[in-house]
Amino acid sequence: MSLKTEISFRLNGRAVSVTIPVTMKTLTMLREVLGMTGTKYACGEGECGACTIRLDGRTVNSCLMYAVDCDGRELVTIEGLKTENALHPMQQSFVDHGAIQCGFCMPGMIMQADYLAQNNPELSCEDLRRGLEGNVCRCTGYTKVLDAVTAVVEARR
Ligand code: FES
Ligand code: FES
Question: Domain containing 120: what range?
Answer without folding.
Answer: 89-156
